[in-house]
């Protein structure tokens, strides 16, 4: 059988990670969280004392040091320069700095190149999710989906995931401020030509997963 490639984009709290993970499991494909790679780079920079908001420093660090990022194809771990950062990349200080890192074109180009290699590594195929998978990383993917949800629904979902560990203000910073910053780099609020728009505001995770699997079966 031919390889199956499913590209999913969406804002923070749209449910793209949970959806992509479940779809990958249902169809026996590998899973790639492209946002985890931006988070991993942010951790590497913070470790090295690079100021993420200083563009010159970020460019020097991107092109100077060869940062080693490895991800488990089954999403159990993320490592940076050999160190396990699976939990650390979810910390608020990383959410706070990751958009600054991701606005630097040199950094994006480097990660896009790595993301294409990772998406091609599994002969079964893959489900990849992020902000620019459908438009930049893999515009040729046969199945391309943009997940959206109302700001209220996205705040509630992310708040639920974080289990009340952050204040309302921190939550809005992590979801709404980050989206505003991120949407200056790539447009993940409107579906590009050929990308299926799926509004998940009133759907459960199971319903979203079923819809994506159905679409994948219909198309391939
Ligand atoms: O998806 P997640 O929220 O983990 O992504 C973390 C950050 O990585 C985003 O806020 C964004 O700045 C960046 N990102 C990106 N392009 C992607 C995926 C993530 O710029 N494809």
Could you list some keywords that capture this structure?
single chain, 220 residues, alpha/beta, three-stranded antiparallel sheet, 8 strands, 50% helix, globular, binds cytidine-5'-monophosphate, ATP-binding, Cytidylate_kin, ATP binding, cytoplasm, dCMP kinase activity
Polypeptide structure, described:
This protein is of the alpha/beta class. The chain has helices spanning 16-27, 34-47, 55-64, 92-102, 105-120, 133-137, 151-161, 168-182, 205-219, and strands spanning 4-9, 30-33, 69-71, 78-80, 83-84, 125-130, 143-148, 196-199. It has a five-stranded parallel β-sheet with strand order 2-6-1-7-8, sandwiched between helices. α1 (16-27) crosses α9, α2 packs across α4 (92-102) and α4 (92-102) runs parallel beside α8. The model has no long low-confidence stretch (mean pLDDT 92). The protein binds cytidine-5'-monophosphate. It is an enzyme of class 2 (transferase). One of its GO terms (cellular component) is cytoplasm. GO terms for molecular function: ATP binding; CMP kinase activity; dCMP kinase activity. Its EC number is 2.7.4.25.
| Alpha carbon gyration radius | 17 Å
Helix content, binned percent: 40-55%
Uncertain parts: none
Report the strand count: 8
Q: CA-to-CA gap between the ends?
A: 10 Å
Sequence of strands across the biggest β-sheet: 2-6-1-7-8
Q: What general form does the structure show?
A: globular
Give the structural class: alpha/beta
Mean pLDDT, nearest integer? 92
N-to-C series of helices and strands: EHEHHEEEHHEHEHHEH
Biggest sheet layout: 5 strands, parallel
Q: Ligands bound here?
A: cytidine-5'-monophosphate
How much of the residues is beta strand, in percent?
Answer: 15-25%
Q: What is the number of helical segments per DSSP (H or I, 4+ residues)?
A: 9
Family: Belongs to the cytidylate kinase family. Type 1 subfamily.
Protein name: Cytidylate kinase
Binding site for ATP: 10-18
Enzyme class: transferase
